[in-house]
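For consistency, the fold was encoded as tokens, as this record shows:
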Amino acid sequence: MTFVTNYNLEQLNLIKCVIAIPSYNEVTALPILIKELSLVLNSEDAVLILDDSPLDNQEKIKSLVTNSFSDSKGMLLFLNSDKKLGRGSAVRRGMESCKKHFPNLQYFIECDADGSHQVSDIIKLRDHQSKIDLVIGSRYLSKSQIIGWSIQRRIFSRLLNFIIPKMLRVPVRDITNGLRRYSPQSIDYILKVKQLNTGFTYLSEQIFIVNKNSLSIL
């Protein structure tokens, strides 16, 4: 695994918000997301691409993403793996690296690379005025919309978000949503616990840990 940066220590110290994006062969959607996101970032924001693509695709993705980010005021970083370890493992690597490299970090945001999350919603999370330890960009609020999902996917999501919170006894309506903002304190608690799930289900594991330690969730 390689943490790729061309920035100096002083620049890293400026970063308060990291937007971490796990990726696997996202050649098409990721550059589009990065292009839109790059235009609304400031000098205190960093985007961290957590790429598990095969090595022959990593350089292609890095080039496409870097070109898409060229006009941004924010920082662009890559943390690559030489094999596919799962979405959950990628996010955990991102958390570990952010704790190591960004001493003034205030928020860690994770989102998907496939364009399923709107840039405007990512920025709403960044700018959300609260001290909540875990803020979820829920799809199931009265003003939320789900765009581009099939009926089957909608039903499956509803079932999971009904069953899993009851099993884990957590007061969350959208436990499978991959758009989230974490406080440094919540990251500390998550990283203290040995990871059980490496893929998509790590989303539920993270919430379980945060709730078990009586941290705030919104």
Notes: The chain has a mean pLDDT of 87. DSSP finds eight helices and seven strands in the chain. The helical segments are 9-14, 29-38, 55-68, 87-101, 119-127, 151-168, 184-192, 202-212.
